[in-house]
Amino acid sequence: MKHQGSCHCHSVKFEIESNLEKIVQCNCSICIRRNAKMIMIPKENFKLLEGSKDLSLYQFNTDIAKHFFCKKCGIYTHHNRKSDPNGMGVNLGCIEDIDPMEFKAIKFDGKKL
């Protein structure tokens, strides 16, 4: 199923294809601070529609994972994963018509990576 998403100010817009089954919350140093539930999808199931110039990239430690945020509103939209180079995490709170509070998340122990 296809879902539309955006940052808070709608500068960054994207589309994902997902059945919304693999939702996780991670306890690594960045994820614990942003406290976002994330949909795990293959990279090919993510399409950036607008706002590539409005995305800011943040990397730390090994610089393998790539975390993307809107430069205007600061919202984390998605990231390329360190633990799975072919996978992505997408902020569930950025998906239109979805209430992330209604979804249970699998706990991912990212501290161990």
Can you tell me about this structure?
With 113 residues, the chain is mainly beta. The chain is built from 1 helix and 10 strands, in the order E-E-E-H-E-E-E-E-E-E-E. The chain has one domain (2-112): Metal Binding Protein, Guanine Nucleotide Exchange Factor, Chain A, CATH 2.170.150. The chain has one helix at 31-34; strands at residues 2-6, 13-17, 23-26, 38-42, 46-50, 55-58, 66-70, 76-80, 87-91, 106-108. It starts with a strand and ends in a 5-residue tail after the last strand.
Helix and strand layout, with pairings?
Blueprint (H helix, E strand, L loop, with lengths): L1 E5 L6 E5 L5 E4 L4 H4 L3 E5 L3 E5 L4 E4 L7 E5 L5 E5 L6 E5 L14 E3 L5
Parallel strand pairs: 3-10
Antiparallel strand pairs: 1-2, 2-5, 3-4, 4-9, 6-7, 7-8, 8-9
Instruction: Tell me the strand order in the biggest sheet.
Output: 6-7-8-9-4-3-10
Number of strands: 10
Any idea what the shape is? globular
- Please identify the top-level CATH class: Mainly Beta
Helix content: under 10%
CATH architecture: Beta Complex
Report the β-strand fraction as a percent range. 35-45%
CATH topology annotation:
Metal Binding Protein, Guanine Nucleotide Exchange Factor, Chain A
Give the C-alpha Rg.
Answer: 13 Å
The secondary-structure element order is EEEHEEEEEEE
List low-pLDDT spans: none
Average per-residue pLDDT, rounded, comes to: 92
Supply the number of structural domains.
1
The main sheet comes to: 7 strands, mixed
Helix/sheet category: mainly beta
Count of DSSP H/I helices = 1
The CA-CA distance between the termini, in Å, is 31 Å
